[in-house]
Structures are given as C-alpha cells and as structure tokens.
Specification:
CATH topology of one domain: Serine Threonine Protein Phosphatase 5, Tetratricopeptide repeat
Number of strands: 0
Number of helices: 22
Shape: elongated
Order of helices and strands: HHHHHHHHHHHHHHHHHHHHHH
Low-confidence stretches: 1-48, 406-412
CATH superfamily of one domain: Ankyrin repeat-containing domain
Structural class: mainly alpha
Helix content: 40-55%
Distance between the termini: 105 Å
CATH architecture of one domain: Alpha Horseshoe
Largest sheet: none
Mean pLDDT: 83
Strand content: under 5%
Amino acid sequence: MKSIYTMLFLFSFGLLLGHCCSVDAMLSLRPGWMNSSGASAWQEGAGSDYAQSTIHRAASSGNLKLLIAFLQNGDSINKRDNKENTSLIWAASMGRTKVVYYLLEHNALVNCTDNNGNTALSRAAFAGHEKVVDILLQNKANVNERDNEGRTPISWAVSNGYLSIAARLLEAGAQVNGGKNQDGDWGDNTGRTPMAWAVLNNNFNMVQKLLGHNPEVNVVDKEGKTPLSIAAQRGYEYIVAMLLPKCTLQTVNLKDKNGKSPLHWAAGNNYSGIATHLLNVNAGVNATDFEGFTPLMRAAIAGASNSCKFLLEKGSNVNVQDTIKKRTALHWVLRMRKGTVKKDAEQLEPRCVQAIMHMLFEYGINPFLRDNRNKTAYEWIADDWEEKELLGAYQAIYTKQLVKKAGEYISL
C-alpha cells in the first residue's frame, strides 16, 4: 500500500513542478500491479462497485495534469472502467469543467454510455453541473438520449430541480415530454414525463417553464395517474390551477389504478380548494371508485366539512351506498367519530361529525338505509353520545317530511 501512495505522490509532485523527473522515470517506479501504460487496475476501497483506473480517478478528481500524463503514456482517451464509464463521463459527473473541455478538444466520444445507458450529458444534468452541460451541448451531445430507465437528460434535470439546466436543454431541442418509452408512450419506463416529475416535486417554477413549451399534460403513468391527479392527491393547489386549462375533461375525471379520480383524492385528503377547482370544470361529483365510494363519502370519512359543503352544493347524491359495506356518507361519518372501536384511521371530533350530519340532512339523507350488517346509521351510535339525541331528532324530522310528502301525493 505504501508503494501506491509513493507513486501517486511522485506523479503529482513531478507534474506540478514540471521538472525534476520525467513521466517515464516516474512510471519506472510503478509496482507490479500496474501494466506498461502505468494506468490499469487500481481498485477503489474495499466494497466499492467501481474499479477506476488511475486515468478515471484523475478525471473524476479534476487532476488534468495527471490525466494528460496517462494519455501521453498510452492510455486511451475513451478507456472504460468496469461500469463502462469513460473519463468524460466521470469528469462530467463530478463537474470537472476543465477536464471535460480538454477531453472533448482531444476527440473524446461525447455520446458514449455507461452500462446504465447514461451519457456524460445525462450525468451532468443529474448532478446539476450547468457549465459542463453547456460544454457538452456545444460539442453536439445528444440531448434526447434515453438511459436504461427510459430517462433523458431533461428528465433528470427536472426531477432534481435544476431549472436553469432544464431551460438550457429545452433551448437545445430537448423533447419536453421526455421522448417515448418502450411501449411507444410519452415518458420514461414508469410512464412519467418531465412534467410529472416537476409536479411530484411541487416545483411551481419548473411546471411553469415546461408549460411554456406545450407539453402533453394528459399522459398517464404506470400507476394510472396524470400530472393533475398527482397534484390533486398531494395537495398542490397552485399547480392544479395551472394544469387545468390544459387538461381534457377525460383527464379531469380519469380514475387511477385505485379507481380514484382527482376529485376523490382532493375530497378524501381535505383539499377543499383543489376540490373547488375541479368541480368548477365539471369534475364528476358522483363518480365512484373501486369500492363504490363517491367523493362525498371520502370527504365525510376525512371529516372534510368544507369539501362536503361544496360537493353537496354541486349536486352530490347523499344516499349512495358503497359496494362492499353498503354504507352511506352518514354511516361513515359516524363510524369515524372519536370513540369508536376503529383503530387504523384518524378519528373525528364530535363537533366535526355533527356539522357534517347537519349538512347531510339538509340535503336529504335517508337515515333509515341499512348497511350489509342490516344496521341504520342510528344503530351505530353509542348510547352516551351526543349524536344519539341529535340523530333521533333528525330522523323524526325526516319522518315528518315523508308523511307530509305522502299526504301531498295522496291529495293529488
């Protein structure tokens, strides 16, 4: 091990001073594990996945003089390590601007890829090295090269939040949708476009930049989600407002692999502002997910009284029963009330439960509908709850209204 450090010290010292001894003289001191070029299997520390030769280490560390020495003594400028990285890929990854410039000036291959399909440009974009990106683009780097994950340089720049690099790539002709994947659809192998990655990161400025280049915002990823449904699920209201003018009505109502539309996600997560935006563009207020839940039922379960109010005003059907347990929104809000046996969910305070109950009765909920256990909502209430008396009063009012309507019908 001492011989390794001795050789490196002599290399660096001699090159920096530019005299005292020649490169050939220093190479004559090489230990037995080096080949005649002076630049083969120098392994990194134990457990590393990479086996860099000295030329790759010189490139990644930015030691241009040492790199030149190895080139002068026979190493190929496009020599690869055990992961197919070249010196250019290493230098670009680490932001070594001078090394990148030198390698390209001496005919390094700009578009060669490592064993993951990454080019020097995609690695520089991933790491946020803007100056390196500029140099590579000036040397005709392929701006739309896809790696083994189906991702392009702009996809990496966007997902890691490098706005100026994304802008530079777009100016250089990057496909704003990230090109087409192996299925012939826009996006990477997960179906995510740069826009989807920008939305996932809640990057308002990046979304705005991409929208200026007319992206396809209705692309569906492998989870059945569009950028709109991602934003609605995560509560990114400003982004939802930006995307909606570009979305089709089909996208507004598209159900993902969970059977949930953007409105289901917004209502169920108590994002009343997003629910308002969606309803204002005719989102399906009575759409049901795979369990038969409407957005109103999801809002009731979440205790989202503001969303419940707006959904009811927009015509939500209060008497829909889910397909599995046959419960209405009234059943569910009472089942979520603090004090129930239910454990794996956030329970609701009585005041919240009562506010939603009041709204449901105001919009005509039938309290006598029975679930799959043949229970009405009233029968789910514990005897010591305030809701017992309240619901009893509501039921009495509902019954009187039925009698009144029946009398009016008979008189006709």
